[in-house]
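User: Predict the full complex structure for these chains.
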Amino acid sequence: MSVIITEVRNAQSLQADNLRMVVEINHPIHGWIPYGIDPSDADTTIDNYEVMALIGSDFAAYVPPTQEELDAQADSRNRSLRNTLLETEVDPIVGNALRWSALSSEEQAALGVYRQALLDVPQQAGFPNTHTWPTL
Amino acid sequence: MAITLNGNGTVTADTVVLTAGTVTGSTTNGAVGTYAWATWENSNTAAAQMVFGTTYAGSLLFPAGFASSSATVVTTTGQEHVRYGSGSAISVKDGTVSAFSGTWRCMGQTSPVASAYDEQPVTLFVRIS
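Assistant: Here is the predicted structure of the two-chain assembly.
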């Protein structure tokens, strides 16, 4: 069953070749709703070519992320990874008296160095793009 | 059974019997009418609460699931149960997947986001167009 769309508004291109869009469509059942157009969409309920024809050239141009935004994303991603490594590789041992006491003094020292190196990753000169991860 | 075509173009009938055949909803992944677990692209750029009944463009949503970095097997009454362990890192999104298309209605609700860096909501969606 096809649904005929006759009105669109607020289209925004999502990539440089303008093949992916997000737009609001006036759906005959749902009213104005957001709608994502992607060439890989196999669903034919709405004819995306007709929606693209309605949009025409009336859309906001694709805005690639700035280097500042990419850096912010990398910063967040790498801090999350650092936290995950602390929570999964260090804390379960350091926070468990039995597991901690079972380690040799050398192993305890190595774990302490590893923990501090993880904490210091964001202070590396190349963070968040060219830093190195410590190993245990 | 009397069927009458009225002058104003409407059709009336005394009795109408409808016999339904088999109606099957689509099971094609991503098709209108299908459900999927979904999440935002990542928490640092779009960590918004997912609100029950709200519609979202598919381009904002990605297929999601749950996996633990330290799942353990617990045996009780002879049955093996899998649980996420303490300190477990839980992954929800595969970085290789593409966003959905169309329009999706949120069929769950996540908690309000307290930290832009720490929360990655996941809930159930149904595609409506």
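The mean pLDDT of chain A is 93.
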